[in-house]
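Researcher: Please translate sequence to structure tokens.
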Amino acid sequence: MPEEIEETGGKVGSVSASRYAEIVAELRKLVETASRIQFTIGDYALEVEPMREYGGQERSDDLFTVKNSLFGLAEDIGVSYSMVKQARWTASRWPKEHRVEGVSFTVHRILAGIADDEERFEVLRTPPKGKTRWTPDEANRRAGRQVVKPVTPQEKVSAIHSLAQDEEVAATVTGDLLRRPAVVAQVKPEDKVRVVEELSREDEVAAAIAPDILRRPAVVAQVKPADRVKVVEELTRDETVATEVTTGLLRRPDVAFKAMSDDTARHQVNHAQVERGRQAREDFDRTSPIAPAIRAIDRSVEFLDLVTACHAFVAAAGRVVPGLREAPLGDDERVFVHENVARVRATLDWIETAVDTGKVDVDGELARLLQGE
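Model: Translation complete:
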């Protein structure tokens, strides 16, 4: 009887402490009787089928014969085969001289799992510290098995693991535990990483989590540069997003300077500027009401530029050619001048054609000549 009940004279359930003590005493006698019966069944089962190998481990080729014999014995005495099998094994682990009176067959059976004979016999003779007798839970605790009433944190963890073997139960328990900040705070960082990885395998969940994480500067600061680049590349696959991000980045002088150090990037920017100008001009010509007037002005400007170019050429030639009288050119110089005169003559023919016909296209030969090839 528990000491606190003896001291207070309280009740246990619906009975008084004294009546509870009487019940315990009677039941202990019955348990001792039941233990003797179970050991007797085990001893007789051993007589029918002795253990075939040391340590109670049957050889595989003997299992069928042993099972038939024990099954027949169980049928003949009206108990289950598992009961006879368990009693036989337990009796084999506890020779009669090492069985302890007052200790239940259940405790003997649990502690029978201790491999070393001497250790097993000594353990049974020595109740746990602070206890006067062995209980099934104390025996399970000593044997490293799950207890019915867990006390220590590890025992409670083991009990939860056992109850959560079903996937649905485990999912429910995990969800409930992760809602408790004090619990989550004690989870190891590497375990938290694994939890997040598992929970975010679904794309929708990952998409919902990612923005919240990326809004935390302290978290982003710990991401490796290479991984940051990958994230930005993935997030900017959309043209609209890429345009907005790129515009923002190029407003930062240091970023723009480093970006323009890349030849390809610089070429693309220049090309984009030219293309944007062309598109803007086309849009202006197509939509602006003053476009015709501007085109007329442009044509006048082009006419003046062309006349000015001809006048400048004639003026320059009139100034330079008379000087050749006093300084004749050498053979190589004459060849070079003749080549340039041919280019000038071809250019003049091109100008006349453009003025007379409006065709400004340059054929391949003229293009090569103008380029000095």
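Researcher: Any highlights?
Model: The chain has a mean pLDDT of 80.
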